[in-house]
Amino acid sequence: MNANQKSQVNSLPGNGYCCDCNSSCPAWASLTYGILICFECAGRHRGLGVHISFVRSLTLDKWNQDQLDTMMAGGNKKFTSFLADHGTDQDNKTTIRIKYATRAVQLYKEILKARVAGKPEPKMSDIPSLDADFPSSPRRSRHVLDVLRPSVLPTSSAIIICSFKYWSHTLFRPLLLDKPRPKFALYAVYFGGGIVAYSNAELRNNSHFLRLATVLTVPVFLATGYILFLSLRSIKWWKTQRLCAFKSAKNKLKERIMKGRAKQNPLYDLYFPPNVSIGSIVEKAVLFYPELLVDHVSYASIVGKLSDAGILIVVVNLEPLRTPIWSDGAGKENRDKIMFEVGKLLGIEVKEWIFGGHGEGGVAALELLRSTTTISRGVFWGCSISHSSQIINKSTTLMINATNDQVARHTISIKEQTRSKSFFNIEGGNHSGFAHYGPQIFPRKDGERAITIDEQQKQCVEQTLNFVFGREIGKNKKD
Ligand SMILES: [Zn+2]
């Protein structure tokens, strides 16, 4: 939100004070109700879930016109006087959870929506009674357990934009280092086209400038055409090759949320170590990026074990595109926002942040590691890093790969492995064995696992913990 928009929103009656606790200068908004709240209350609102209150920061978030219109149609004074008119107790002792479950609040939410859309405003009789909202068991338990954020399919235009960036990156950035032969052939085609164009231009035109321009333009034109072709073709697999989390992983996360050991936010899932809550200090936290097209909930079981051992884990939510490279979710802005939110909004003081990632999520995390001065360590699972190996020299990293991983098969060379102490191979593991999803066939068909998924994850957790807590990395069985 820019300064002008902010002053417009701030000037609405009642917006000088937090709508829930009356503290001054609230810098957060609940878009669901068009109200402003302070950062403590924003944390409580997030705890209710995004379906009850959608929280945005006035300063950190970008705002679109619809969202701004909602804020302008709302205002703290309108909201509180509406609740007072409908007999909802406004005293500070009323917990936020109870307050935002009342029918009056739900009616206000619908009225606000209708006001912004220019539709007739609903009445109290249109709102289901609380009994219907919170049915007694067994339906109640289903309602309570229905805590996971649903995943949404991306739109085709979003896919084209993102896959254009994705393919440009894949075909150009690592140049000849990564998969040299097919890439070399591709470049030969591009520049061969340039040379053909050059010789034709020579026949027709003697201007050196025009000939040079042709030589430079044709390869770019060919490459762009090819990338566009791949991007259009991508729409199908971007929608069909999404890898769902196993039900067991979803249930693990639900259980943790119910026990207060995990929390879902729009941007990320948090896994708390035992006895850590808002306002605590933790020694180590890992900012973890999931693999391309993989549901981030798939990691619930394995990162849950890391959190049980005392690490705060943040699994970044890359929905709906699930593209770690080139998606805003894995960008620098989001990294800063997440670290800010954990520190300021939840008040959790983290002594050391470490990057983590699986597959392309690991590649994205490596990129971030390079650009983050305050973070110097990273742990990467099933990640092809040949083209990024220079980063490893500068910072401390641990690579954990699996011998039967066919997805990230072009991994670090044996020579490099023996030189680097922080490398671990899981004998008989595969790519999807690092989380609970699969089978993976995109971008390549994964290998068969020769050990159980529990065994692979046990080894992965062990070595990750060794690395995070500065212990020696276990010897590779092959050595
Ligand atoms: Zn407040």
Please tell me about this protein's structure.
The protein has 479 residues and is an alpha/beta fold. The chain has three domains: 3-141, Arf GTPase activating protein (Annexin V, domain 1); 156-240, no CATH class; 247-468, Rossmann fold, CATH 3.40.50. The chain has 18 helices and eleven strands. It has helices spanning 3-10, 39-48, 65-73, 76-85, 96-99, 103-117, 130-133, 139-145, 156-172, 180-204, 208-240, 247-258, 300-308, 332-345, 360-371, 389-394, 414-419, 453-468; strands at residues 28-30, 35-37, 55-57, 262-264, 268-271, 281-289, 312-316, 349-358, 377-381, 396-402, 423-426. An eight-stranded mixed β-sheet has the order 4-5-7-6-8-9-10-11, sandwiched between helices. Helix 13 (300-308) links the parallel strand 6 and strand 7 (312-316). It is globular and about 80 Å long. The termini are far apart. Residues 18, 20-21, 23, 37-38, 40-41 line the site of zinc ion. Zinc ion binds at residues 18, 20-21, 23, 37-38, 40-41.
